[in-house]
Amino acid sequence: MDDVPLPQVGIGMVVGLLEMLDDVQGKEDIFKLARSLSMELDDIGPVIEAAKILGFIEIYNGDISLTKLGKELLNADINERKIIIAKRLQQLTIFKEIIKLIYSNRARQIQRKQVVSRFAQKMSDEDAEILFKTVIDWGRFAEIISYDSYGEVLYLDK
To answer: How many CB atoms sit inside 10 A of residue 60's CB?
Structure first.
C-alpha cells in the first residue's frame, strides 16, 4: 500500500478549501490562508495534503494554488465531482490495491479485517483503523467502494 497514508479528512473539507482558494483567484499564501480561516497550520495541513494527493492544488514557495483539475472540480456538479474524484482515487496505489484485492476474490468482496491487517503491516493498528475509515469515506463519496458495516465487507460500488 502507499507509504504515505491518506490524511484523515473528509472530501467536503477538501472541496471547501478549493472553494476558498477560488474566492482569492486560485492562489494564496498558506500561512495567510490558515490565518484567514482562524486555523493553525497543523489543522489545515491535512486538508492541504489531501487536496495535493488528489491533484487539486499545487504548493510552490509557500503558496497554494488551484490546479486545472481543481478548477474543473469546482465547476462541476455533484455527479461530475464524484466522477472526477473516483478517477483520481483509482490512480492512488492504496485504492488500486484494494480494488485488486476485491477482484481477486471470487465473491468480489473482502473482509474489513483483511484490509486493516494489510495496513497494519506498515503502521500501528490504530493508524490502520484510521486509514481504513478514510478509505471507506473517500471511496463511498466517489461511489467506487461500498462497505457493509454489519458484515464488515468491502465491495465495489459499480
So the answer is: 8
